[in-house]
Predict the 3D structure of the following.
Amino acid sequence: MSTAMIDTETGVTPAAISIADLTVTFSSKRGTTTALEDIDLTVADGEFVTIAGPSGCGKSTLLKVIAGLTDSTRGEVKLRGRDVRGPQREIGYVFQRAALLEWRSVRKNILLQAEMRGMSRQAAARRCDHLLEMTGLTGFENAMPYELSGGMQQRVSLCRALLHEPDVLLMDEPFGALDALTREKMNVELHRIWLETKTTVVLVTHSVAEAVYLANRVVVMSPRPGRIVETLDVDLSGHRDYAETMERPEFIHVANRVRELLGSASAAD
Ligand SMILES: Nc1ncnc2c1ncn2[C@@H]1O[C@H](COP(=O)(O)OP(=O)(O)O)[C@@H](O)[C@H]1O
Ligand SMILES: [Mg+2]
C-alpha cells in the first residue's frame, strides 16, 4: 500500500478516511430523503472498520460518498487529508454481486482494472498472479465466470478490487449472496488477506457475526436517517480461527452489544 503522506505543516499523518458532520439528502419529484445525518467517522491507516445497520439506513450511500460517487449535501469527506470531489482513483470497490464480465476469463476480469487505469502490463500481470495465489484461485486463471461458484466469483471480484493496490478497500455486503458456510470461509480468508496487505477496509454488512469477526471497530447505525449510534472496539488481535473466535468472551460481548443496538434480532441476522 502507498505510504502515508505527512502534512509538512503540522507533521501529522492524515487519517485514511475522515468524515465530519456529513449529511446526505436525496431530492426528487416525490420529495426529499435524508439518507445520512451528522456522520463523524475517522478511519486510521490499515484499520478494518465494519458498518452494521438496518436496510435503508444509508450504508451504501456512505461508501459511495467516500468513493466520490455520491455528493455530500453537507459536511466534509477526506481521503488522506484531501477533499473527496468526484470519483476517487485510490479506491477498490467490491459489491454484493461480483459483477464479472461473462465473456472474459478470470484473469481477464481481474486485469480489467489494469486496462482501465493504464497500469503497466508486466506489473499488472505479476500482481494478478500474486492475488490469484493469495485468494486460492491459482489454476482457475482461464476459467470463465459461469464455471465458478459464488464464493470463487467474489474472490475474483476481490482480486480485481485489489489489483491497483488501493489505499482504501470499500466492500458493500460482499458476502450477502453466499450460503452461510461459504460466507464463513470468505470471512476467514478476507481476514487473512487483510493481515497480509494491511489495506484500510470499510465493510458494510447485515451480519453481526461478520461485523465483529472482521473488525478492529464496528460502527452501528440507526434506521433512516442513518446516524452513528455507537462505535465499538474489537480486541481480537492476530489470527482468528472462526469457531474459536465465536466463543471468545470479547467476541460474544461485542456481538451482544451490536445486536442490542440494532434493536431486534430481525434487524440483523
Ligand atoms: N440515488 C438515490 N436517489 C434517491 N434516493 C436514494 C438514492 N440512493 C439511496 N437512496 C435512499 O437513501 C436511503 C439509504 O439508501 P442506502 O444507502 O442504499 O441504504 P442501505 O445500503 O443501508 O440499505 C434509502 O431510503 C434509499 O431509498
Ligand atoms: Mg446497501
About this structure: Residues 17 and 43 are 5 Å apart (CA to CA).
